[in-house]
User: Which sequence fits this backbone?
DNA sequence: CCCTTATATATCAAATAGATATATCGTTTT
DNA sequence: AAAACGATATATCTATTTGATATATAAGGG
């Protein structure tokens, strides 16, 4: 990963829609892009500081209400240009880290029942996530006329398409093992 | 990631089939499990040293032929037990890092043509990988009687199923954007 | 004989995950 | 009214991992 911080692009991308705090950014990641990307506080807060130093984001007046300090960030013109350049750049790394598949790949060291159980756990998780995605899809289809929503819609379609493929595979896998 | 080293399980899993060098392990990862897991030298070599210290692998006589030093590792009884315990453990983290999808999600900051191009690049990569997977599938179907091959077969089916879903999505995405 | 490619180990900096510490706020329970 | 709790919010630490690079040898081609 030594090279460019991908989390920077997540942050700049989210800030291109709204001014947000680090905590808001984490919430938005967990809520909308978690189906193809994740982010932790341990990467978000240091990245925000770096981006501010670089001049890609700026700190808006926080703390009006006198509560817990709250730092709202806003994207700058420079930040927008960096984001656009990254979107235009054709190269993209697409990595999976599927521990379930790895457990299955090495399933021969244990019983067939163990592998069937691992498939079952995976299947339950996918079914739960698929339900969430279908709710998102129904909601967004009511507001597809707004330009930006189209891009969100595409990523939801991706999630649904792949998760359905996972479920089909679960059924096949069960048959092959039996 | 602070917690358990997943690369340890990749190494123990591969060593449960054959005695291997660090370099061999890297080759096997790139050749067979790269569709759902990746590994770099920077994680493999330190992990091998750690595993040796722990007693999960042991170093076999290297360097008979007098060439570049070559360290062949073998799994121990303890290593096998750690591997089995991990396979039995139901919890598994399944993460995607799809930069293509992220670029698409934030595609609104650039032209529609840019997003279409990003989809095209993704599609070409998937088509190339799918061809490789189909060759693997054809080869392994000739040798499915061997117990361990079934597990390899399942992971190939997973790759094919998901990659075909990606291609279907590419077509849908093009239509939505147009 | 040189050049390239494959084999092979090793290490470093940067990026990230995941855990934890700290503090505040609003709501519910006692 | 106080205590308990969960959500909000920032920050930091360690362990893990990536991706790059350095080093060395062997094999094959021109």
Assistant:
């Amino acid at each position: 990963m030594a090279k460019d911080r991908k989390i920077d692009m997540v942050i700049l991308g989210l800030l291109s829609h709204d001014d947000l705090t680090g905590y808001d950014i984490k919430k938005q990641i967990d809520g909308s892009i978690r189906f193809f990307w994740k982010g932790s506080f341990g990467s978000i807060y240091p990245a925000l500081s770096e981006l501010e130093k670089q001049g890609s984001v700026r700190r808006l007046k926080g703390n009006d209400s006198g509560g817990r300090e709250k730092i709202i960030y806003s994207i700058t013109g420079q930040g927008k240009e960096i984001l656009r350049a990254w979107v235009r750049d054709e190269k993209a790394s697409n990595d999976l880290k599927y521990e379930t598949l790895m457990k299955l790949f090495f399933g021969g060291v244990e019983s067939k029942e163990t592998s069937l159980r691992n498939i079952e756990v995976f299947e339950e998780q996918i079914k739960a996530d698929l339900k969430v995605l279908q709710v998102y899809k129904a909601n967004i289809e009511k507001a597809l006329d707004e330009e930006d929503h189209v891009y969100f819609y595409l990523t939801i379609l991706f999630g649904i398409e792949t998760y359905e493929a996972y479920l089909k595979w679960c059924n096949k896998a069960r048959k092959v093992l039996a």
